[in-house]
């Protein structure tokens, strides 16, 4: 009994999803027509469905091919500028890490200022001393790396 109920629910769910897909597809095609006409831009739409072997192409396969070729040949957004999901996420993570490092640096500087101009208790001064020492080590490491790179280039 429960098996037939589950099967019926799946079928109903599948039917609802297909209905939603058809409505959204119609809406998407309408939006593409509006975009092309109202904004006078080149646009195309290629849609692959799960079971449909040839994709649906708007306005026509030849026009879609022309628009795609124009996109790939453009100097601003050529194939080299496109990112896949992994590359996009890696780039986003690196950007976020840089922002985090900048904010950490700002916090260290703020805490140094607070420490210097506020109540100079021993604990704060020790923290400031540690922060300054770590900054000095970082600068020394950067100098060492730059020196080694300069040596390698000379050889």
UniProtKB/TrEMBL annotation:
Q: Which residues form the MADS-box domain?
A: 1-48
Q: What is this protein called?
A: MADS-box domain-containing protein
| InterPro entries (UniProt xref) | SRF-like_MADS-box (IPR033897), TF_MADSbox (IPR002100), TF_MADSbox_sf (IPR036879)
User: Which key words are in the record?
Assistant: DNA-binding, Nucleus, Transcription, Transcription regulation
Predominant place of localization: nucleus
Gene Ontology molecular function:
DNA-binding transcription factor activity, RNA polymerase II-specific; protein dimerization activity; RNA polymerase II cis-regulatory region sequence-specific DNA binding
Q: Where in the cell is it found?
A: Nucleus
Matching Pfam families: SRF-TF
Q: Which PANTHER family match?
A: AGAMOUS-LIKE MADS-BOX PROTEIN AGL80, MADS BOX PROTEIN
Q: Which GO terms describe its biological process?
A: positive regulation of transcription by RNA polymerase II
Question: Where does the source fall among the domains of life?
Answer: Eukaryota
A single GO cellular-component term from the record reads: nucleus
């Amino acid at each position: 009994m429960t098996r037939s109920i589950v099967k019926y629910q799946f079928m109903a769910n599948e039917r609802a999803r297909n209905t939603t897909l058809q409505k959204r597809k119609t809406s998407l095609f309408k939006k593409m027509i509006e975009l092309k006409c109202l904004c006078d831009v080149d646009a195309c739409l290629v849609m692959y469905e799960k079971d449909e072997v040839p994709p649906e192409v708007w306005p026509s396969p030849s026009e879609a091919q022309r628009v795609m070729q124009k996109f790939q040949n453009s100097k601003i957004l050529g194939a080299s500028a496109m990112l896949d999901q992994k590359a996009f996420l890696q780039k986003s993570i690196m950007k976020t890490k840089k922002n985090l490092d900048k904010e950490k640096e700002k916090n260290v500087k703020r805490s140094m200022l607070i420490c210097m101009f506020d109540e100079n208790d021993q604990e704060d001064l020790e923290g400031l001393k540690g922060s300054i020492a770590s900054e000095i080590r970082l600068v020394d490491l950067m100098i060492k790396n730059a020196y080694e790179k300069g040596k390698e280039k000379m050889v």
